[in-house]
């Protein structure tokens, strides 16, 4: 009986695997065409100065509008894009799209808008990256201080190469922040050595910051550390007023979350700018 069941289990498992592999292949094939078929869209989520309540910047977040699947979450397709190497053309599309948007906003007189762009580890390791960015800045007359690049701790693992890359980016004049801070292979060494501008506290620590003593300790410690190292901090995933009050009391500079706004299509922001 045991044998039979394990064989049945195995067959089920194999079927499941096959299904997953097929799904992955389907997504990969579809993703390949997404760029050319204009299925990718960038949404923008405001980042708020907690003391003044003003929007100080936006994070660009990728959305894939598949004709049949509907909106596919980046959490689902970014890993596949990384695995298949498609992240390189997709990542380049993202940077160009942000530059175009900034050019439009600059033209419309919505000046000095700052946009944060996520860079995947693979993109960050591309030697060609900095030249590509520089040429896009030239094409769209972008002031480099209008751009911030968000990198995760995973991208910093090869410290020597990462340091060279960060320095080249900083020489362009952009800002660098560490995304999902505290969830990767954190090493305090890079905070000492790398010219980083800000830390983004991962939303998993913010979620229960009011009820969980450990989350509270981690968040306050990150804030102290950042203040002492003269780094700016963004708290991610603020959903309630209580979380906002706690973070303000702890002198967290910036925040981002559904309490303020979900990521929105740029048209929504254009309409709001016209209103005010
Ligand atoms: P991330 O960079 O850490 O982005 C923050 C994520 O948290 C976004 O999910 C955002 O929609 C979500 N979020 C914001 N406020 C709240 C909140 O109050 N509550 C909750 N529960 N979630 C909130 P999203 O847009 O699904 O993106 C997921 C991840 O996909 C991003 O995490 C980033 O790692 C990656 N990603 C998105 N766009 C790009 C891109 O253009 N390039 C690369 N390489 N990665 C991207
Ligand atoms: Mg991010
Ligand atoms: Mg994050
Ligand atoms: Mg994340």
Order of helices and strands: HEEEHHEHHEHEHEHHEHEH
**Major sheet: order of its strands?**
1-2-4-5-6-7-8-9
Number of strands: 9
Distance between the termini: 72 Å
As a whole number of angstroms, the C-alpha radius of gyration is: 21 Å
Bound ligands, named by name, code or SMILES: ligand C2E, magnesium ion
Structural class: alpha/beta
Q: What overall geometry do the principal axes of the alpha carbons give?
A: globular
Average pLDDT level:
92
Helices, by number, come to 11
Query: Which runs of at least 5 residues are low in confidence (pLDDT < 50)?
Result: none
Strand content: 15-25%
Question: How much helicity do the residues have?
Answer: 40-55%
Q: Major sheet: size, sense and barrel closure?
A: 8 strands, mixed, barrel
What does it look like?
By secondary structure, the chain is an alpha/beta fold. Helices cover 51% and strands 19% of the residues. It has 11 helices and 9 strands. The chain has helices at residues 2-34, 74-84, 87-107, 121-124, 129-139, 159-172, 188-193, 203-207, 213-228, 241-249, 266-275; strands at 40-49, 55-66, 70-72, 115-118, 147-152, 175-181, 198-201, 232-235, 254-255. The protein has an 8-stranded mixed β-barrel with strand order 1-2-4-5-6-7-8-9. Helix 10 (241-249) links the parallel strand 8 and strand 9 (254-255). Helix 1 crosses helix 2 and helix 3 (87-107) packs parallel to helix 5. The longest helix has 33 residues, at 2-34. The radius of gyration is 21 Å and the shape is globular. It binds ligand C2E and magnesium ion (MG) (3 copies).
